[in-house]
Specification:
The protein contains two helices and 19 strands. The chain has 305 residues and is mainly β. It has two domains: 156 residues, no CATH class; 101 residues, Sandwich (Immunoglobulin-like). β1 and β2 form a beta hairpin. It starts with a helix and ends in a 16-residue tail after the last strand.
Length: 305
């Protein structure tokens, strides 16, 4: 087995042991012939000032078809909250893309502590609903890019430092942007629960390892700009990402048997809905531009070490 494959397996085991372990979030799932003509939804609201609401609607094709999934046009997409005086907004489709966003000149900021409900009515009368709680996230203090001791300092890693919110039941995702492009493949997702680290300060947590052995396959290079966003996610969204990760690793020595990826979306016709709706707070970390100084072993952030 190649060293890189072993390293990749170790990362998954570390996430499982430490338990601080969606272009947009990946929502590709493995389908069988019974999953033809299902509706797939990719939707979120976040606390950013702009472009903070996004809904994409598609229908699935047979697994042996190579054509892109057809989009769903002319749906009625409504987002609402549970404020004392509830706020709602109807999204507009961008052309005929199947992507629905806020109407021009409209703002609908995500607010931590509120539960958001997504209601989609397709042209054929199918009604899809989902709700998600927007949990406040801690500030992402520091982002580092350095050689990791996993792999005997052969691979660059991305590390974060942040306080973990006291009280069990917090879940996190880290969106990694390389030259403003989101790293979104399922096997590269970085997400976590606080089960074993509740209330602790998290020092130099590895969220991504550029484990490829061949230079042309590596993701991180000298001169690249790295940005990380720390997101709060719900337990349902955490379960979705965990199942995606299982599918991405199916067939490896560290994999578990794949199962249907869970969804927090439901339909009035009882059919399975693929994808998820996520409400998340966002904390943006510092930007790192990779240069020679990053190709050195990580210097610990832990006081006194």
């Amino acid at each position: 087995m190649k060293t890189a494959q072993i390293i990749k397996g170790i990362i998954i085991l570390l996430f499982a042991i430490v338990a601080l372990t969606a272009c947009e979030d990946v929502v590709d799932v493995e389908l069988n012939d019974e999953d033809i003509d299902l509706i797939a939804v990719e939707a979120y609201i976040n606390t950013k000032a702009e472009n903070n609401v996004y809904v994409k609607l598609e229908r699935t094709l047979a697994v042996n078809q190579t054509a892109q999934n057809p989009v769903i046009n002319n749906a009625v997409v409504v987002l609402s909250d549970n404020a004392d005086s509830p706020n709602s907004v109807t999204l507009e489709e961008q052309g005929t893309t199947g992507i629905y966003v806020l109407p021009a000149g409209t703002t609908y900021p995500g607010v931590s502590g509120r539960t958001y409900t997504l209601t989609i009515t397709t042209p054929d009368g199918t009604v899809i609903t989902a709700e998600d709680y927007l949990q406040e996230v801690e500030i992402l203090d520091t982002v580092k890019v350095n050689l990791s001791n996993i792999g005997d300092y052969e691979y660059l890693g991305i590390f974060i430092n942040s306080q973990e919110t006291p009280g069990l039941g917090h879940y996190y995702k880290w969106d990694i942007y390389i030259n403003d492009e989101l790293l979104y493949d399922a096997e590269d997702l970085a997400f976590a629960s606080d089960e074993l680290v509740d209330g602790n300060y998290i020092y130099d947590m590895l969220i991504y390892l550029d484990w490829e052995e061949e230079e042309e396959d590596k993701i991180l290079h000298d001169g690249d700009t790295i940005r990380v966003e720390q997101l709060s996610i719900s337990s349902a969204v955490y379960d979705f990402y965990w199942a995606l990760n299982d599918q991405a690793w199916a067939g490896s020595p560290f994999s578990v048997p794949p199962a249907n990826v869970p969804s927090n979306l439901s339909s009035n016709d009882g059919k399975r809905i693929l994808g998820l709706f996520s409400a998340r707070d966002v904390s943006v970390g510092n930007t790192v531009v990779i240069d020679d100084s990053n190709f050195t072993p990580l210097k610990s952030s832990i006081p006194g070490i």
